[in-house]
Amino acid sequence: MNDLQPSHPVLSARGLCREFSLTEGRSLEVLRHLDLDIHEAEMVAIVGLSGVGKSTLLHCIGLLDTPSSGQLIYHKDGQTWRSPGLDEAQRCALRNQFIGFVFQFFHLLNDLDVLENVMLPAIVGTPKAEWKQRKHEVEARARSLLDTVGLSGREKQAPGTLSGGERQRVAIARALINNPRLLLCDEPTGNLDSNTSEKIHTLLRQLHEDFGTSILVVTHDPDLASRADRRLAMIDGRFESAADGTDR
Questions:
Q1: 99-102 sheet: strands from edge to edge
Q2: 208 contact partners, CB below 8 Å, separation of at least 6
Q3: Which strand (E) or helix (H) includes residue 209?
Q4: pTM value > 0.70
Q5: What is the pLDDT of residues 79-115, one digit of tens each?
Q6: What is the C-alpha separation between 105 and 111, in angstroms, rounded?
Q7: What homologous superfamily does CATH list for 43-67+94-239?
């Protein structure tokens, strides 16, 4: 694990709040004035009981949901994007190019083979007029990523023919296809048995070290959390002191 915390954030959240409207004018406050920095080449784990706001935070950071208030700041190669302040096209571009997603339930498309699933974010993010020129490059990267996650030779298989652990490996390769600055993992082993989970834990840590990708992972799994550089405990929509005492 990193002995020194990197100095440059790829993501900063300031005063993040998320409320959901209920009946009779009531509301449910899920995130409460959260501040968070994720630094370059840093792996951070968020732990806590179900319902404390972990996945809601991840969805807001991933621009899948919109905070009720507060600000999200994304940094890459000297450029900065701030939300609110992004139009829908900018939000879509950041989701596609800046962020990679790994979900508990894989979300692979059964009508596509393994290779096509991995390539999908690049296909979606490439203008139609440019795809012919980029296709060979993208396919080569997809094959390389499948080799990295231990699935070389499985490119033409249907996702439904794979085990749960293999499908999650495909999902991880897909999340990395556009070389994202930040990888968001929402309970990536929550749907897997303990032996398979251990293999995914090892893979995520190895990919983090090999690619230098910043990773924010939400997990109930103490083994996965222990592999992070920093662990944050979340209670009732707020961060408490870090599980390992390293939080500010």
A1: 99-102, 182-186, 214-218, 43-47, 230-235, 238-239
A2: 41, 43, 215
A3: helix 194-211
A4: yes
A5: 899 999 999 999 999 999 999 999 988 899 999 999 9
A6: 17
A7: P-loop containing nucleotide triphosphate hydrolases (3.40.50.300)
